[in-house]
Amino acid sequence: MNTTNPFDEIEQFLGRTPFAGERAWGRDLRTADIDVAEYDDEYVVMADLPGFDRDEIDVRAREDRLTIAAERDAEREDADRRYLRRERRHESVTRTVDLPTTARLDDATATYRHGVLTVTVPLDAVDADEGHRIDVN
C-alpha cells in the first residue's frame, strides 16, 4: 500500500522542500554564515554572501556592534517570458556581531572577493595595567 503524507503536498505548494530553507511570501529569511577571529591587533569577520554585488552590501559599525546587511532583487525579466516556476525574487541577509571594547571603528576596512566579505577592525593595544607580554623562546 502506497501512503502519502498530505503535508508533503502542502509544503510543495508553499515552495518548501527539505533543501530550500524557510520561505515566507517569496522572501528568503536567513542570516549570513560567518567566521570570527580575534588576533592581538585586529578582529576579523568573514561573511559568506555569494551572488551579491558590492553595491548591495551595507557594513556598519556602531558603538560595540558590527552589522552586515545585503539585499537584492532578481533581475527584471522580459514581460513576455513565461515561467513554469519562479523562485528567485527578493533576498535579504543580515548579521550582527559584538565587537571588543578595544575596537578602532574609524580604521575598519572591508573587502569583498568571490562571494566572501572580510571586515577587519584594528584593536587598540592591551591596557598597560595588564603588563607587557614577553615571548618565551
From TrEMBL:
CDD domains: ACD_sHsps-like. InterPro entries: A-crystallin/Hsp20_dom, HSP20-like_chaperone, Small_HSP. The keyword Calcium does not apply. Signal peptide: none annotated. The keyword Glycosyltransferase does not apply. It comes from Halorubrum coriense DSM 10284. Belongs to the small heat shock protein (HSP20) family. Residues 25-137 form the SHSP domain. Keywords: Stress response. This is Heat shock protein Hsp20. SUPFAM superfamilies: HSP20-like chaperones. The lineage of its organism: Archaea, Methanobacteriati, Methanobacteriota, Stenosarchaea group, Halobacteria.
